[in-house]
Design brief:
Layout lengths: L6 E6 L13 H18 L4 H5 L3 E12 L8 E11 L3 E9 L5 E14 L6 E3 L4 H10 L1
Antiparallel strand pairs: 1-3, 2-5, 3-4, 4-5, 5-6
Length: 141
């Protein structure tokens, strides 16, 4: 199997992303990872707001994150996205946050489930991904 080149999205660390010591607050890594996944989907032609009109969305179901080194105010980071596993109703991503020298600062495994955002009485429930999305994700992984 060919190795897939990770999608990479640039992120600049703003003052608002840091704690009092100028180090990125741990929860903000989740925001960086989310932005990269969203931009990756957009680069593939999958606009999440379009699917929301069909009441289809993706929700993060599980996160495993390892913070290896700190990022600091004004750092320029690269956030990568690779599909590790694609199932009928979920996708598992491997992601990294890299420093300017390529050092891995954070690595994460994110599982996202495809859900139907039904009416309030129906609740949110897992559903198979639309075939169009699966095909695009297969080609990209």
């Amino acid at each position: 199997m060919d190795e897939v080149t990770p999608f990479s999205w640039p992120v600049r660390v703003y003052y608002e992303d840091t704690d009092a010591g100028g180090i990125v607050y741990y929860a903000n890594y989740l925001k960086f990872l989310e932005r990269a996944r969203t931009e990756w989907l957009r680069s593939l032609g999958i606009e999440q707001d379009t699917w929301l009109t069909h009441r289809i969305g993706f929700v993060v179901r599980q996160v495993e994150m390892d913070l290896l080194r700190p990022a600091r105010f004004n750092d320029e980071l690269q956030v990568t996205v690779v599909v590790e596993r694609l199932k009928r109703a979920s996708v598992v991503f491997q992601q990294q946050v890299l420093g300017t020298d390529g050092t891995v600062l954070c690595q994460a495994q994110i599982k996202a489930a495809c859900v139907n955002l039904g009416e309030a009485e129906e609740g949110v429930r897992a559903v198979p991904m639309p075939a169009e999305i699966i095909e695009v994700l297969k080609r990209a992984s």
